[in-house]
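thoughts on my protein:
***
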Amino acid sequence: MPPDDNTHPETQTLEVRPGVAPGTVRSDDGEVLQVPNDWALLPPGDAGLTRRVKASGPTWTVREKRGRKVFSRGVWAHKARIDGARRALEVERADPAYAKRQAAAKRRREAEHARYVAEFESEVRAFLGFDPRYADVEEELAKRVAAHATPVGSGTVARTKRIAVDERARAAVMAWLRHQTTDYDHRHIAREKGRRREVRKELAKASRALLRRYRSGEERDEGCPLQRALARPAGSAVATVVPTGQVARSRKTSDAELTRSAQRTPRQAPARRPAIARTEPRARVSAAPKARWQGAPPSPRRPAPGRSGRFGTIARLKPAAAADRDATPGEADDDEGRSSSS
């Protein structure tokens, strides 16, 4: 098929999955495609180079899904186009003007992020709507939620663009309360379809009831879970009582625990015993077999009577009475005659 045919995979920009064999990929419909010999795989990591290669012609973007996450495994493209884009980008990055543009773009992104954090925190406070007597609690909780949910690359609901900002703020508050005021991180949830969603709904009811008490201005209890969560340092784990014999597993670790772990000295390996210096060479061990008992010469094995040995067959020995009894009458007379004549 001619290479300029639009139906040929080499002339199309596709999103594929890793293949079962090296040099192969799988399309969305399961078809195994052979990577052309003059193509090369551009590994992920350089966004600028990847954009240039994709803009220069047909490419195959390899994506692999693991659970609910999708990972990029690189881009297949013509090797000459990849090399040309890499050389052009190296020349551009060597120009001092490029560094200035990058610094300006970084400042612009930081300013946009700061504005988004302020907007998100404002939406969180609007959703909380605590009584004026708990204004300090509302402010502290909004800062904690915004600091946890807004960092770039965090993967939280606050970074999505699929829903409005107010919905993101509400979902982020409920998620923070679920992890910080309940035993969700330590609870054993059966791996059944829909079971985790049911647990989240149950915990969301408790979180909404907790927010209603602060919105109505009720007196807070001494063991209020929200007060305990805000009393802990930011980013610390939930203090949960764990039954004996079980190990608590948390998705977060406090700074104090990290400090203690860094200061803990590693276990020292036991010192090896020094080798003994020999002043005399070792005695040469003879290749002869050792005796069964120390000092006793090895005894040769004698064959059993009636069996073939080294010197022929060994006859079984019989007593004299048995020999006379077995002999014939003629043989007995001959023996008596010989004895009388002698």
User: Anything to note?
Assistant: Residues 9-94 form one domain. The radius of gyration is 44 Å.
